[in-house]
Amino acid sequence: MIELLIDDEFTGLLDEAALKAAAQAALTQQGIAEEVGLTIAVDSDERLQALNLQFLGIDAPTDVLSFPADEFDPDTNLRYIGDIILSCPRAQAQAQAAGVSLADEAALLVIHGVLHLLGHDHAAPQEKTAMWAAQSAILASLGIHLPNLPEE
Question: Which residues, 6 or more positions from 151, have their beta carbon under 8 angstroms from its beta carbon?
Fold first, then answer.
């Protein structure tokens, strides 16, 4: 079960079904066949900066944060894999800079977040190559082509 929490300030800017579809496509591409629980939250730069400082010690806003979990949700009895929080203002700025739609940029960020929940990272070159290849394959499965994937 994919739950969405969108701050009132950003309601209507993103297609909720498209965000869920991006998350589900990432799960499917990564071979997660069983239904799992995860939450996607859409919030402000300020909120992501506060979380980035609190959990990673980085006092700067960021586009997406992932908080992996490995527990069972007592309400749904599903394995809960974690939370993804994305900054709508940052997604808007990145979309504009890249010349892509906000919907496509948000899909990339959700996919990126899900991959982190599933253990992917991009700290080392080999990890980054694998993660970027997975992102590209998932985006392609959704019919999304981004000319310049971010080089975080």
Answer: none
CA nearest neighbour of 16 among 106, 125, 76: 106
- Tell me how far apart the terminal alpha carbons of the chain are, to the nearest angstrom: 29
Classify domain 2-141 at the CATH class level: alpha beta
pTM of the entire structure? 0.93
Among the listed residues 81, 91, 108, the one whose alpha carbon sits nearest the alpha carbon of residue 42: 91
For residues 83 and 41, the answer to whether their CB atoms sit within 8 Å is yes
Could you give the count of Cα atoms lying within 13 Å of 36 in the half-sphere of its Cβ?
A: 25
With cut-offs at 50, 70 and 90, classify the pLDDT of residue 137.
very high
Rounded CA separation 41/54 (Å) = 17
Q: Tell me how crowded residue 89 is: count the other CB atoms within 10 A of its CB.
A: 17
pLDDT at 115 over 70: yes
